[in-house]
Design the sequence.
């Protein structure tokens, strides 16, 4: 299992790709022979011979590709079986003790299984989606009742009524989404705790770069679920030591690659995942504050800040440091790490 | 009196907002650093200018700052060395 860094789902996806490619080749060969048949008798002999030679040449190449695909198919099936066995074995293991017992099951440098082989946190279930639909419907009804209530109390000014209803709706929707998804910070803390075995100083020191990458990637994706936004994973870049990370709105959290090579940057790596993840969350919250359980005024402050974002390279770094989105991201990440029990 | 707004926008590509903030910081600068800024804007080299272990050159290479931001950083270090050092050490994320 050394170096296998994929899940059974990934392998199934590769198998489907291979199956698609095989079918494409089969269809192509059929079409070629169809064209040859229709050309036969209508083309003059010399040109037909040329066409036939090209077709034979293509056919030979396709046969080779087809053979490679067949081999890939067999290989993937074997890998799939191995991964399934591995994942089942891991699932049966006591997660609190696997760090110390799994060296016989894994050829990773640390003896820990890859973080991606853990049972993954999932997005919303069908029940949860139904809870949201029903909840939003109930809020609509409540708002109608609230409107009548305000009217009964003699509050009829349209601007005031509309504002009061908007505020009540916002609060109710934020509460609904928090109930369904769970609190953002609490979920981030639980993600960190779930993967804590990878991030204690002792195990982190034993892990090679590939394992560290994998663990940070899974943490980022889990954090993305907590943030109610789609975080695709982490990417690493070679930058000066002062540049710790960034988020550029493409779904990935970017971390300085020195977090992989320098053991002393372990806490900084975690802090940066939650800091950049929080920026992803802030951006998402500006377009849909209620879904992210963020007050409208807060979302507007962030939106204004993103428009007038102060980069650290041209303007006073103190101003960069104290702008709202940076203060929030910094405080959030610090709180998650403090409460996530990572030292 | 230099027209910093014009210089920052036309020569250094600052937005109006960045220029306004930067002009506020220039007004708060100590006289020595302000003189260094004027030298820089006149085309003279100020890369060795600094405070304690931080020079313009070091701030530019370690923090990818331009010379104007580096000079502002030096004036901040002079005003509140420990506080600004903490900001520098946190890095950019």
Sequence:
């Amino acid at each position: 299992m050394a170096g296998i860094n994929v899940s059974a789902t990934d392998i199934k996806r590769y198998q489907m790709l291979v199956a698609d490619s095989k079918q494409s080749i089969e269809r192509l060969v059929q079409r070629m022979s169809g064209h040859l048949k229709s050309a036969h008798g209508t083309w003059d002999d010399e040109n037909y011979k040329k066409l036939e030679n090209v077709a034979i040449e293509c056919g030979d190449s396709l046969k080779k590709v087809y053979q490679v695909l067949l081999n890939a198919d067999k290989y993937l099936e074997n890998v799939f079986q191995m991964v399934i066995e591995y994942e089942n074995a891991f699932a049966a293991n006591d997660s609190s003790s696997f760090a110390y017992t799994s060296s016989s099951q894994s050829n990773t440098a640390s003896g820990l299984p890859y973080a991606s082989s853990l049972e993954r946190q999932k997005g919303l279930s069908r029940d949860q989606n139904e809870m949201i639909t029903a909840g939003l419907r109930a809020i609509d009804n409540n708002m109608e009742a609230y409107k009548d209530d305000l009217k009964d109390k003699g509050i009829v000014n349209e601007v005031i009524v509309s504002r009061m209803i908007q505020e009540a709706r916002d609060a109710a929707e934020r509460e609904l989404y928090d109930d369904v998804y769970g609190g953002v910070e609490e979920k981030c803390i639980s993600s960190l705790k779930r993967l804590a075995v990878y991030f204690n100083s002792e195990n982190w020191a034993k892990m090679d770069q590939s394992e560290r990458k994998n663990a940070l990637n899974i943490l980022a994706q889990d954090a993305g679920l907590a943030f109610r936004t789609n975080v695709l994973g982490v990417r690493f870049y070679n930058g000066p030591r002062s540049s710790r990370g960034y988020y550029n709105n493409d779904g990935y959290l970017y971390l300085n690659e020195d977090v992989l090579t320098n053991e002393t940057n372990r806490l900084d790596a975690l802090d940066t995942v939650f800091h950049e993840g929080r920026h992803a969350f802030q951006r998402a919250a500006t377009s849909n504050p209620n879904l992210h359980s963020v007050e409208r005024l807060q979302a507007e402050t962030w939106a204004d800040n993103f428009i007038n974002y102060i980069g650290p390279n041209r303007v006073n770094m103190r101003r960069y440091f104290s702008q709202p989105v940076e203060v929030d991201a910094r405080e959030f990440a610090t709180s998650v790490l403090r409460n996530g029990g990572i030292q | 009196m230099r027209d910093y707004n014009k210089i920052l926008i036309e020569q250094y590509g600052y937005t109006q907002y960045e220029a306004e903030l930067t002009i506020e910081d220039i007004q708060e600068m100590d006289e020595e650093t302000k003189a260094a800024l004027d030298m820089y804007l006149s085309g003279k080299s100020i890369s060795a200018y600094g405070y304690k272990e931080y020079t313009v050159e070091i701030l530019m290479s370690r923090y990818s700052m331009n010379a104007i931001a580096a000079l502002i950083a030096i004036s901040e270090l002079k005003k509140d060395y420990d506080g600004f050092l903490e900001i520098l050490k946190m890095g950019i994320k």
The mean pLDDT of chain B is 97. Residues 67-79 of chain B form the longest helix (13 residues). The beta strands of chain B are 50-51, 54-55. The longest strand of chain B covers residues 50-51.
